[in-house]
Request: fold
Amino acid sequence: MSEVDALLERLVAQFAGPYDFLRELVQNALDAGSDRAEVVLETHTEVGGEADEVVYELRVSDAGGGMDEAVIDGGLTRLFASTKADDRTMAGGYGVGFVSVFAWEPEAVVVHTGRAGEAWELVFYPDRRFEKLRLTEPVEGTTVTLLRRGRASERPAIAEAVRDSLWRWCRYCRLELSFEDIASGEPVELIQDSPAPADTPLTISEVQGDTTVHVAFAVPPSATLLRRGLVLAEGGAAELLGPLLPGLGRTAEHLQVWIDSPLLRTTIARDKVVDDAGQRGVLARAAAAVTGLRARLVAAIEAAAAEAGPWTRARHEHYAHLHAHLGRELEALGAGLRERPLLRDAASEAGLSPAELMTRLRGRPVLTFDPDEVDTGLLAAAGRAGYPVLAAEAGDLGWLMALLAIDAGRVLPLQRALFRERGDAASEGLRAAVERGLLAAGVVVQLRFAAGVPGSTTARPGLVGVEIASDKEGALVVYAAGPWPESAWKAGTLWVEDGMLQRAALKAFVSAPRTAALTLACAVAAGLGRAGSEAGAIAEGLKDLSGGTGS
Reply:
C-alpha cells in the first residue's frame, strides 16, 4: 500500500459513522452557494441477481456553482489516482471531506457536475481510482450518487440511518434540505429545525456578523456548536463546555447554548472543535451572555415577587420555576443576593430581601404559604402582626434554605400554626403553676395551653410556640424544634402544644400538682434554651404546691 493509499484509509476511518459523508456533501453544497440540497434513496432490482438482492442508489444533489475541470483536477481528485495515470499527490483540500463517502463502502461513486459551459462525469471505485469523462449535455450544480449492492430487507434501516444523520448534523442548515425514500411511498421530508425561541426572560440571542450566540436557562442542559448551520459538536453543557468555560459550576445543570460561527474550526474528521483564538473569542461572548442571563433571572424574580394582586397557583408556579433556576446560580451570584427583594411576603403582598426577612424574624422560624392549602385568614393574621410569610411549598424548600443559609427545622408551613386555647379549670391551675415556676428561674412569660384546631395537623416540630397574632378564632403560633432566641419570646405569649406531655401533666396535676408543674415547666424552659441549671430554681418556686414528691 502506498503512502497516499494509507492516508486515504486513515481519513475514511476517522469519520465517526458511515453516514457522516452526508454532512460533508451538504457542506459542499453550502460552499457552492446552493439554496437547496436533495437527498434521495432508491432501490433497483439487478437483472440476474438473487431474489432479495438489490442495488441501493443514494443520491445527493445541489444547485450550487458546480465544478469545472480546473476545480476537479486541483481539488476533488488530488487524493485519488486516475485510471490513466498514477500521478496523484497529497495536495489540495477539497477532496478530504469527499473521501468520507467511502465509509459507506459503495461499489462506485458517480459525480455529475458542471460550470461555465463545462459538464463532467467522474466515477470513483473502491480502490480509490477514478475515471473522468466530459459530457456534451449541460449539468446544473453537483450530484453525487453512491451505488452499493444489498438485501431489500435492509432498506428501512438504511433509510432511517440516512434520516438520523441528516437530522443530527444538518437540521439547522441555511438551505432547504430534504430527504425522500422513494420505495417507502412517503412524501418528501424537510430536514429543518431552529434553536429555542428568544422571546423569554431566560434567553439571550445575539448576532454579530456571521456569528450567532444563543444561551438560555432551561432543562435539559445542552450545547451545540455549529458553522453555517452544520453541527460540529453537541452534548450536555457540562460535557461539551465544561473544559472550555471553567467555573460553570451548577450553571451547567440548566444551561442551553447554541453557537453558530465561521470562527469555529474542526479537525479533518469533524470529530473535535479546534481550540484556537477563534473558538476562545466566541466562547468569551457566550460567557458574557451567561452573565447577562443571570442578571435577567434576578430581575424576573424581583418582578414576580413584587407583582400586585392575589397569589394564584399559576403565579406561584411561575415564581417557583424562576427560583428553581436561581437555586443553581446562588454560588455564581454571590452574597449580593441577600439584599435583593427576591422573596414574596404573601402576608403583606410585597417583595422582601433575605436580609430584611432575617432581621424581621429575629431568630423565629420562617413561615411558608402554599396557595392551594392555606386559609386566607391565617395570612391576614400574619399580615396584621407584621410577620412575613413566604410564598413557598415543599418543592421550593431546597432553594429557600440555600438562599437563607438555614436548616429545614427553621422552615414551617403556615397551616401548622393556628391554635385555640384550652378553657377548663385544670388547665388554668397548671398554667399558673408553670408560670410561677418559670418566674422563679428568671423567665417572665405568659403561657397558654393549646387545644389544636379540629382537622389541623398535630405533627409540629416543638413543644413551645410563640404567638404572633390572635383573634376570637384563635391564635397564630409559631413552633420551633430547637431553642428559641430570647429576643423571639421574651416579649410575647408562649403556647404549650396540645401533645402527650401537656396531656400527661394535666392528668397528673390533680393528684401530684408539684410533679406535674415541675415536669412541664422544665420542658418549657428546655424548649426556650434554658434547660439544666434552671431545674433547681423552678423546683424552689413550686415548693408550696401540695401533692407529689416534687423533687
The chain has four domains: 3-190, 203-297, 307-414, 418-541. Residues 277-306 form the longest helix (30 residues).
